[in-house]
Structures are given as C-alpha cells and as structure tokens.
C-alpha cells in the first residue's frame, strides 16, 4: 500500500511534464488519415529539393529557355494553332454575336446580383476594394503599355448590345483582361458566401469569356492569364489585409457584420469536420484544466510525502524513560 501511494505523485508529475512538452499530442487523435514522416526524412527531402532548385537555376543561366529568334511584335503560338476555330466564327457571325451577348449578359447579371445581395445583406467591403484596385491597375497598364492588334484582324467587334463588364471593339491596351478578373473575384465571393450554384455559374462565365476573347482575338494569351492571376491575387490581398482597414477602421464593423451568412470558417472544406474538433480546442482546454489541477495536487502532496519519507528513514530517538514506562 505504501509503495502504491508513493508512485501516485510520480505518475501525475510524469503526465504533467508530458503535457507541458506537447499538449496537442495528449489530445484525442484527429480524423485525418496520414502517415507522419520522420524528421530525418523531411530534412533529407528538403536538402534534395534545394539542390535540384539550385541546379535548375544554373541550367537556366547556361541554357536560356527563350530562343534568340527575332520577333517583330508579338507571337502567340497557341492562337496561331487555333486559327481554325477563329475561321469558324468568321463564317458564322450570328453565332459569334449570340455567344458574345450571352457571356456578357451572364457576367453582368452575376455582378448586379452580387451588388444587390451585398447591399441588402451587408458584409465586408472586400469586393468593392478589389474592383477599385483592378480597374486602377488596368488604367495604369493601359496608359503605360500598348500592344499591336493581331495581324489577321480580330472578330471582337460590338455584338449589338452593350455590356457593363465586357469591353468590345479594337484596342491596343490589351494587358490585362479585366473581365476575367471580375469573374474570378465573383467566384471567390460566392464561394465564401457558400452559394454553390452562383459559384459554378461564375466559373462558367470565366471559361466562356476567356475562350471567346481569346479565339476572337480580343486578347492575347498573356492578357487572359494576367487577368485571372492579378484578379485572384488582388482579391486575396484585399481579403487578408486591406479590407480590415476599411471595414473596421473606417466603418467600425464587427466581425459578424463583416462576414454574414456563416462566412466565418466553421468546418473543413474537404472532410466537413467541425473546425473546433479539428483544432481540439475543447480537448486542449480540458487538458489544461486537468494539468493545473494535477500541478496543484502534486505540489500539495509533495511536502507531505517528503515529510513521511523523512520520518520513515530517520526515526526520532526514543526516550529511555518512555521505554521503561
């Protein structure tokens, strides 16, 4: 009995130290299925990756990937390979105009619908800031950089109906395509708002506008790529950084006003598990309370245990008079 009582504080102290070293490891396991690699393997993999990256830079310096062939203005090789599709729309102008009107109207409807939802339901100024930065950057590039129209002429003519988001007609300020920037930003907004149907419709508008503007030679390949990349990056920077200053510092919005309609992340987008279960907040708080209780109990029992052990090891000398009695 005495040995078991002596081991109890030691076991509690060991569990307390184990929790202090790694509190998350003491919690219940998560639902993800993965195999954790060893630290040595991770270091070797990183070292090998760094060596491959350095060799790649050396090869680029020694053997440049770009040819030294002279190009007069712009050479879009993919557009030249798709010339047959351009010829098809050249011979079917009614179909071309119909598709241009449909894609332009679809993008306009998505934009107007978002504006109405944002005005009525409220929310962050994130999209409006992204829209302002997108067209400001487009205006800057358009004034500083000009490109020649495609040699064979373009079919990106006025289809008969104006559009709010799509620019028609021959132009020389090609870079970048702002329509695709709006589409990718609307896609992100509807995805954050958990509007699956509108998100997929935005993706359809993105693909349709990209295809028509490229095949009809309204934009080059680099223009469409730049529109998607810059549009997404502008929205990402605005969402993670810029919108806070406008939402909170200017308008004094709370976090629930900034992210209405359950826009706050509450579950995993891949497995659907609750984010609180994944982060193990409740379990960690429980372990913290248990750790504080064990710590207090351990420090309370340690002096008593030491005093008992000292009494057992060094018994006090007995009084001879008491022995005779």
Automatic annotation (TrEMBL):
Keyword field: Membrane, Transmembrane, Transmembrane helix
Composition bias type Polar residues, residue spans: 299-316
Residues spanning the membrane: 45-63, 98-118, 124-141, 197-216, 228-246
Keyword Transmembrane helix: yes
Region (Disordered): 1-30, 295-325
Organism domain of life: Eukaryota
Name of the protein described by the UniProt record: Sphingomyelin synthase-like domain-containing protein
């Amino acid at each position: 009995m005495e040995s078991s009582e002596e081991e109890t504080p030691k076991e509690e102290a060991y569990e307390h130290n184990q929790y202090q070293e790694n509190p998350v490891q003491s919690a219940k396991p998560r639902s993800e299925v993965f195999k954790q690699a060893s630290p040595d393997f991770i270091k070797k993999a990183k070292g090998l990756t760094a060596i491959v990256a350095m060799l790649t830079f050396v090869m680029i310096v020694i053997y440049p990937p770009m040819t030294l062939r002279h190009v007069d203005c712009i050479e879009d090789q993919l557009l030249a390979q798709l010339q047959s599709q351009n010829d098809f729309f050249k011979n079917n102008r009614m179909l071309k105009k119909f598709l241009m009107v449909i894609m332009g109207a679809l993008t306009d409807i998505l934009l107007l619908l978002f504006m109405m939802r944002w005005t009525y339901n409220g929310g962050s100024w994130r999209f409006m800031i992204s829209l302002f930065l997108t067209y400001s950057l487009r205006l800057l590039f358009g004034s500083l950089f000009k490109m020649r129209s495609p040699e064979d002429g373009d079919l990106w003519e006025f289809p008969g109906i104006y559009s709010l988001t799509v620019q028609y007609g021959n132009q020389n300020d090609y870079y970048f395509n702002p329509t695709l920037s709006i589409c990718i930003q609307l896609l992100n907004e509807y995805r954050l708002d958990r509007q699956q149907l509108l998100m997929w419709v935005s993706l359809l508008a993105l693909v349709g506008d990209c295809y028509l503007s490229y095949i009809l030679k309204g934009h080059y390949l680099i223009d469409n790529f730049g529109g998607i990349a810059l549009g997404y990056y502008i929205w990402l920077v605005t969402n993670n950084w810029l919108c806070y200053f406008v939402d909170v510092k200017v308008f004094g919005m709370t976090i629930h006003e900034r992210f209405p309609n359950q826009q706050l992340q509450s579950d995993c987008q891949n497995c659907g598990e609750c984010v609180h279960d994944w982060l193990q907040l409740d379990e960690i708080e429980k372990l913290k309370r248990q750790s504080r209780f064990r710590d207090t109990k351990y420090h309370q029992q340690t002096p008593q245990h030491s005093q008992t052990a000292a009494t057992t090891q060094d018994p006090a000398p007995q009084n001879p008079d008491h022995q005779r009695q």
